């Protein structure tokens, strides 16, 4: 009986000396480029240094002047009214090293305890024209010029009609010829401003009423 498959013998060809030498030769390896390795190390070190500098900068604190007790508008600021506090980040305030330069000046607006003091909140001028008075006005966002107002600007103060009123009542002029004495951002209300305006004494009540009812609008007018 024949086998289902046939077995065959194969003989490997004999290798010569040259063939055996070629088999012993190692495969070529990738060559390293020292210049690129050095550049990579420099990049790693540089990024580490930059990251460390940014971390240190972010945590760095600077002393600034802070109000320690409430100060009324127009009141002379004393050393006992002030202190310093360390804050981080981009904060606009008087540096703690300049605290003594604030003493003796007057508050251009009412200052609450904990307020970080700015130069715009101070004034050295306490004189007031005859017949004029200073009135504080709180203005919400969108109710004064987009560029804001500064000390010396001539303005008019209007009072908006009561909300929910009938008809088409127009705003009422409560101060026809007023002047900005001081202006600062309202720290308690985003987009709001706190103003001190010089107005004739007989218009002070109307301006204060508009501010108290949150209906005040400030219009900047040219000087005559």
Automatic annotation (TrEMBL):
<feature type="transmembrane region" description="Helical">
    <location>
        <begin position="34"/>
        <end position="55"/>
    </location>
</feature>
<protein>
    <submittedName>
        <fullName>SAF domain protein</fullName>
    </submittedName>
</protein>
<keyword id="KW-0472">Membrane</keyword>
<feature type="domain" description="SAF">
    <location>
        <begin position="62"/>
        <end position="123"/>
    </location>
</feature>
<keyword id="KW-0812">Transmembrane</keyword>
<keyword id="KW-1133">Transmembrane helix</keyword>
<dbReference type="InterPro" id="IPR013974">
    <property type="entry name" value="SAF"/>
</dbReference>
<dbReference type="Pfam" id="PF08666">
    <property type="entry name" value="SAF"/>
</dbReference>
